[in-house]
Amino acid sequence: MSADRREWPLYEVFVRGKRGLNHVHVGSLHAADDAMAVRHARDVYTRRNEGVSIWVVRADAITASSPDEKDPMFAPSGDKVYRHPTFYDIPDNVPHM
Amino acid sequence: MNDEYAGDSSQWAFGTGFEDPLAGVDTTVPQGVDPAELAAYCLMLGDDALIMSQRLSEWCSRAPDLEEDIALANMALDLLGQARLLLARAAAADPGVVPALPEGSPVPAEDALAFFRDAEQFRNVRLAEVENGDFAHVVVRLLLFSVARLALLERLRTSPDQVLAAVAAKGVKEITYHRDWAGRWFLTLAQGTEESRRRLETALEALWPYQAELLAPHTGFGVDPATLRGEVDVVLDQVFAVSGVERPGDAPPSDAGREPIGGTGRELPGGTGRDGAHTAALAPLLAEMQVVARAHPSGRW
């Protein structure tokens, strides 16, 4: 690889393993455009039969929470145990719970 | 190994073991098919895949990007898988094509064909064997190769030989991707920079003379590649048109070291790769590919 060439933009890759499961973030790669990113994702992340569907998104299109905001963002939910639906008795005849 | 994946080994290209690739498949040669002709045909297609695979795998760690490096390695493995099945099919149809090995050697027939034949016994097209060049070179080589191979495999899906038909059906999916990869890069390089276009045109000029051999007439069993010329030309002309690249004129390979005869410019005295007449590039390629297997003819892998 030559050091002087301009880098292709970074893409984040999401792969869905099989029908019914969510797309899961599997990693990132470089590509010149969206179409090339899908093909690169196929070549890099689905070689071992991992996927049936690929999403790619340019990393700079993602808005993320900042580590500086960690406490105001996430600490308040730490002691709200009553937000978990664990205080109900589930009848035996309710499926898929 | 994770049980979730171990359950169904058929999802892996080679299975999870390296047993007979045609295990459980009825390899009886269908009535009306000459076993020697079937074997010769499978050898031809298997050798194309094997030698092309070897050239592609030489790209490993040398591609311009990690992503393309893996793409090239993936395609090399696809072709190696096709080679394995086709060489195994050739051996099953006509055991006479398999080179003799020392008594008790555990080397399977497809490995004996890959590793214990010399250059003049290989039947691959010379397009597959010529030395690698730059990235544009591998793009052009793969484009010419996969356009012709895809057209051929599509027809072979209805081959009277069920084994060959199944190998072709599997291969069509793989080569469709190879052709797509090469076509996209052909367009990208053609419409990229002055330098990328110059390299692409240089590679096309160097490799085009070998293209005709992919479509050389073949008599006997199997789809005659010569009947594919029309559809191959349509696809290539489409790629050339969108890329704004002129279709090169037909001329025999300049580096084959032989003078052309006749008016077509497509045949060379002494034959082509299909007859075992190869360029000087094949022997060194085989030497590297075969050295370990030949050093240990009784080895278990």
UniProtKB/TrEMBL annotation, chain A:
The keyword Oxidoreductase applies. GO terms for molecular function: phenylacetyl-CoA 1,2-epoxidase activity. InterPro entries: PaaB, PaaB_sf. Keywords: Oxidoreductase. It comes from the Bacteria. The keyword Oxidoreductase applies. Its EC number is 1.14.13.149. This is 1,2-phenylacetyl-CoA epoxidase subunit B.
Automatic annotation (TrEMBL), chain B:
SUPFAM superfamilies: Ferritin-like (SSF47240). InterPro entries: Aromatic_CoA_ox/epox (IPR052703), Ferritin-like (IPR012347), Ferritin-like_SF (IPR009078), PaaA_PaaC (IPR007814), PaaC (IPR011882). Residues 260-274 have a biased composition (Gly residues). One of its GO terms (biological process) is phenylacetate catabolic process. Residues 246-277 are annotated as: Disordered. GO terms for cellular component: cytosol. This is Phenylacetate-CoA oxygenase subunit PaaC.
